[in-house]
Write a sequence for this structure.
């Protein structure tokens, strides 16, 4: 299989339009042959074709006298560069014709330090063992022949002396003495110092000789461990001197821009050295990237370029490829490597290259084109093939391999995303690429699927699964929101998300959705419907209460409100309602489930926005006191303050709390709201036996133990002895409460004094500040006083009146009295309450007890009824029952002649107020007694009594008109009686004058009784006035009666102005005046 992969070798020809490389090679060849220029630079971007240009130029100038030496800096980057340069130069110069090879080699060897001379002085010594061994060896050799002779003499038949044996033995010892010395030497261990450590070593037999003896050597050696500048200079001078005059050598130092800055500086100094000594025989050609070399030479790039221009004054520049030029070259490379030419495909790849050229490339270079074509070729061999797949391969290579972007960025969606400051990815370019792919492929899914296949080099199904499934599930499990957001814009998210719903528990999913911030609302809205559908199906709420899960639901609802009709909401709310209704039964077994129940109810109310009081069954007093009282902070959504219990439940809850030792606030709003003075249920509770819990608090008070808890201090009011016993001395001992909560202390103390009826002064009462806090606290305590009579009576105590008045006023105006004694109220309580509240408010308070008027107006002590109460009552239009009762009372009183006489004489002020009330309301009553009782009063009553002020005018307005007419008739009869003292008639006129009209037009002539009254007119002005306003028919009067009247009227004209003007008296006045003149 022929891969046709491009290598890094320079091209043989210029394949780009414009032939810029070929033209530059021609110019370079001309300059390189000039003896005036010793160093030439070729500046161009990395991969711009510098090596190709040099090769083309060298082909044009190379002949027998010009030789090329190439030194690749990159190859010797990590080695001894100068040594390598000397070797390369040696190999190049050696190929030059007529060169002196012997001198050339000698120059190299001297430069590299291969030849060196030195002297050595050695001081040696011979050991004692060596001397002994030599001596014994000499003796051995001298004794050996004697031993052989003497030993052979032993084998004779004649006996030998013992000396002969001894002699042979001694000779034998001398012969083997070297062996014995050697054995002794080898048994002797030596101490050897090795790296500072002393070790014992057993010598060998050979060590006894001089060969391994210790020598002391003094020597002087000159060795160059590294080839330096001097060595390079020496070698270069030697090489040039060995070269013929006509020879020309061009040294090309390549890849200078591909090595480290430190190595560039080192080679740069070598270039300076070579330039100085090269002469005309050696020229240097340096291809380089000016940008990279300048940065290596100096931190300031401009300063580095200045260094380059000084050292390389002659520099040729490789021009960048124009767009059309490199595109045609790219087409050529494409065809050569891939074997086929698809103009459309190649064009689209060129568009991507221009759009996404990596940042480390300033422009498109030949090397870059070869590189990307190689990568496209190799990647296409391992990836699934589909139409135009090389375009996607090119995009993948440019983005992932060259620019090092995360692959997920390629398949993310950018439709609704704008570029932000600091983004490394150009959103607009990415949008342009996506539009390009959408144009080339049938759908967005198709090209994204193709990219995934390229990335994982497998089919799309496995690739998508590998790419997104597991990361998506992990991002949900570990609540990695940022990762999930990235994945949500990727191809295949919708399918992967639905799949993950079945692989991850619904609890984990809910917690993950909860972790999404308000900035992720688009994603939340996108995934929430599927989450809710799964939640409705699994409904983990049916399991044991999971606080974290429910709280997560609340937080989600705050961001994206749920549909209130969701199945899981309606079903679970129904379950909660059942549990609340059964809560009292459950509580008897275990209180823990109920705690969780109300916590869950509170959280779900936060979601449904319903009201507890409207959708849940009423709770019992026991449940309320055990779990809800004073828990507004714990259950804010239940709105405990809106829960209203009747007093019966309050008392049951209070009894439960006390029996179980619960610490509750007696003044909690829910308790105080329902509490009223003299409530029937509460009063029954107070009369019960004292519980141990309350007894303990009371005992602490009695033995002067400090009661530090305000809640306990308030519960003293639940002990009947707080009302019945005088505990003042014990209150004085509660100094802690006084110092810590003076308002609470004094409010409790004063309320106890009121409740117990103790009117003794309180020490330091002047220190009490009547603040809102104090007033509210005392107001709360007053709820637990026995009745209103006790409270109202305390208002007469001047010691505390000003202090308690605001609290008492608040108690009454808020309607916090359950029962009152109406009999006592209208007699003894009304006035102090009226003084406290004012007339209207006092009556408004009492209006609730209008129906109890009969009890209030029982036939006792009517005179003690507050006249202010009856007077104030007349100003109101209400109190129908009470007013009707008063009407009955008055009617009953006027049912006898004696009571009528008493009403006329001087009725009690209360009765007068009642008459005024009835009169003001226009009430009329029936008088069951004979109406002549009124006229009989003036006949039968003592004249002195009649002469006093009477109150008949108070009775008249309430009488029916028929009754009044009958009374008037009877009084008229009274006026015509001649047998009565005229004064009785006069007093009747005084009281009924406005009703009595004397208009008698009859034939009778007996008007004597009326005529007699004229004689009293001068004495009683009201009588004269009444007589003057009556109608008289004097023509029908008897003469005597007329004379009497005429004489009195004419003599008292001023008293009778109307009569004087009458026709009857006009003529008589004038005649009377004439008579007076005559006289």
């Amino acid at each position: 299989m022929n891969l046709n992969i491009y290598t890094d070798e320079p091209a043989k020809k210029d394949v780009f339009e414009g032939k810029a490389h070929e033209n530059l090679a021609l110019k370079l060849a001309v300059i390189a042959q000039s003896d005036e220029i010793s160093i030439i630079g070729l500046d161009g971007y990395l991969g711009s074709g510098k090596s190709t240009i040099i090769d083309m130029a060298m082909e044009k100038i190379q002949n027998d006298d010009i030789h090329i030496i190439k030194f690749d800096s990159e190859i010797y980057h990590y080695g001894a560069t100068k040594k390598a340069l000397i070797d390369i130069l040696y190999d190049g110069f050696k190929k030059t014709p007529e060169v002196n090879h012997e001198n050339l080699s000698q120059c190299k060897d001297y430069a590299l330090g291969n030849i060196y001379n030195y002297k050595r002085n050695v001081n040696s010594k011979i050991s004692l063992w060596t001397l002994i061994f030599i001596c014994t060896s000499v003796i051995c050799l001298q004794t050996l022949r004697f031993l052989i002779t003497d030993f052979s003499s032993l084998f004779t038949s004649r006996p030998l002396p013992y000396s002969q044996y001894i002699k042979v033995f001694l000779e034998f010892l001398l012969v083997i003495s070297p062996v014995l010395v050697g054995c002794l030497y080898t048994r002797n261990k030596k101490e050897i110092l090795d790296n500072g450590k002393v070790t014992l070593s057993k010598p060998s037999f050979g060590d006894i000789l001089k060969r391994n003896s210790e020598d002391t050597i003094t020597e002087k050696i000159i060795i160059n461990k590294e080839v330096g500048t001097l060595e390079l200079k020496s070698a270069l001078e030697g090489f040039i001197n060995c070269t013929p005059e006509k020879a020309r050598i061009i040294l090309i130092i390549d890849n200078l821009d591909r090595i480290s800055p430190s190595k560039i500086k080192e080679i740069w100094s070598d270039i300076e050295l070579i330039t100085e000594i090269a002469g005309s025989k050696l020229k240097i050609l340096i291809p380089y990237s000016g940008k990279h070399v300048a940065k290596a030479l100096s931190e300031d790039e401009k300063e580095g370029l200045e260094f380059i221009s000084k050292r390389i004054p002659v520099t040729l520049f490789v021009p960048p490829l124009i767009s059309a030029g490199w595109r045609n070259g790219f087409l050529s490379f494409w065809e050569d490597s891939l074997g086929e030419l698809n103009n459309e495909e190649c064009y689209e790849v060129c568009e991507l290259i221009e759009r996404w050229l990596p940042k480390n490339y300033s422009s498109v270079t030949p090397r870059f084109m070869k590189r990307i074509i190689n990568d496209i070729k190799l990647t296409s061999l391992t990836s699934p093939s589909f139409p135009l797949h090389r375009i996607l391969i090119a995009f993948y290579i440019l983005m992932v391999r060259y620019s090092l972007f995360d692959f997920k960025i390629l398949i993310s969606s950018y439709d609704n995303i704008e570029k932000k400051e600091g983004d490394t990815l150009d959103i607009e370019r990415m949008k342009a690429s996506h539009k390009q792919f959408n144009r080339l492929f049938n759908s967005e899914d198709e090209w994204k699927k193709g990219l995934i296949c390229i990335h994982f080099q497998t089919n799309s199904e496995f690739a998508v699964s590998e790419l997104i499934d597991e990361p998506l599930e992990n991002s949900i499990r570990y609540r990695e929101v940022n990762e999930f957001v990235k994945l949500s814009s990727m191809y295949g998210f919708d399918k992967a998300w639905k799949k993950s719903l079945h692989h991850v528990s619904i609890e984990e999913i809910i917690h993950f959705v909860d972790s999404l911030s308000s900035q992720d609302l688009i994603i939340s809205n996108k995934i929430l419907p599927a989450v809710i559908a799964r939640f409705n199906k699994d409904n983990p709420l049916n399991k044991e209460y999971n606080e974290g899960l429910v709280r997560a639901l609340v937080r989600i609802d705050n961001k994206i409100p749920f549909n209130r009709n969701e199945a899981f909401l309606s079903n679970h709310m129904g379950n909660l309602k059942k549990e609340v209704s059964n809560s009292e039964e459950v509580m008897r077994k275990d209180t823990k489930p109920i705690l969780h129940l109300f916590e869950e109810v509170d959280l779900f109310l936060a979601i449904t926005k319903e009201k507890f009081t409207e959708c849940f069954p009423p709770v019992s007093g026991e449940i309320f006191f055990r779990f809800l009282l004073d828990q507004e902070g714990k259950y804010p959504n239940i709105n405990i303050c809106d829960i209203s219990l009747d007093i019966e439940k309050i008392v049951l809850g209070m009894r439960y709390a006390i029996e179980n030792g619960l610490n509750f606030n007696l003044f909690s709003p829910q308790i105080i709201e329902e509490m009223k003075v003299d409530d029937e249920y509460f009063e029954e509770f107070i009369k019960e036996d004292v519980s141990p819990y309350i007894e303990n608090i009371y005992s602490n008070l009695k033995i002067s133990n400090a009661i530090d808890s305000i809640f306990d201090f308030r519960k003293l009011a639940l002990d009947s002895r707080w009302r019945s016993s005088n505990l003042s001395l014990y209150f004085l001992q509660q100094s802690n409460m006084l110092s810590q909560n003076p308002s609470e202390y004094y409010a409790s103390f004063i309320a106890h004094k009121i409740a117990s009826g103790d009117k003794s002064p309180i020490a330091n009462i002047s220190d009490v500040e009547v603040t809102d806090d104090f007033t509210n606290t005392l107001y709360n305590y007053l709820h637990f006083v026995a009745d209103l009579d006790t409270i109202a009576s305390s208002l007469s105590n001047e010691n505390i009146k000003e202090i308690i008045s605001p609290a008492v006023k608040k108690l009454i105006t808020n309607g916090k009295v359950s029962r009152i004694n109406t009999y006592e109220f209208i007699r003894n309580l009304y006035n102090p309450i009226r003084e406290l509240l004012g007339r209207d408010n006092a009556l408004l308070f009492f209006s609730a007890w209008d129906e109890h008027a009969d009890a209030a107006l029982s036939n006792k002590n009517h005179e003690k009824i507050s006249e202010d109460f009856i007077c104030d009552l007349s100003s109101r239009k209400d109190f129908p029952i009470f007013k009707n009762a008063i009407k009955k009372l008055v009617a009953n009183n006027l049912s006898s002649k004696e009571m009528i006489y008493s009403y006329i004489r001087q009725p009690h002020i209360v009765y007068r107020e009642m008459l005024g009330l009835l009169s003001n309301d226009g009430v009329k009553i029936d008088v069951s007694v004979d109406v002549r009782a009124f006229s009989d009063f003036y006949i039968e009553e003592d004249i002195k009594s009649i002469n006093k002020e009477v109150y008949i005018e108070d009775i008249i307005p309430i009488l029916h008109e028929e009754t009044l007419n009958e009374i008037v008739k009877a009084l008229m009869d009274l006026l015509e009686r001649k047998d009565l003292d005229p004064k009785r008639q006069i007093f009747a006129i005084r009281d009924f004058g406005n009703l009595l009209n004397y208009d008698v037009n009859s034939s009778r002539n007996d008007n004597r009784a009326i005529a007699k009254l004229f004689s009293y007119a001068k004495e009683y002005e009201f009588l004269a006035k009444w007589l003057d306003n009556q109608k008289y028919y004097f023509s029908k009067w008897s003469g005597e009666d007329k004379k009497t009247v005429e004489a009195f009227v004419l003599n008292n004209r001023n008293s009778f102005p109307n009569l004087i003007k009458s026709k009857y008296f006009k003529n008589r006045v004038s005649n009377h005046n004439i008579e007076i003149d005559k006289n």
Observations:
- DSSP finds 57 helices and nine strands in the chain.
- The two ends are 182 Å apart (CA to CA).
- The first strand starts at residue 39 and ends at 43.
- The domain at 20-116+225-319 is CATH 3.40.50.300 (Rossmann fold).
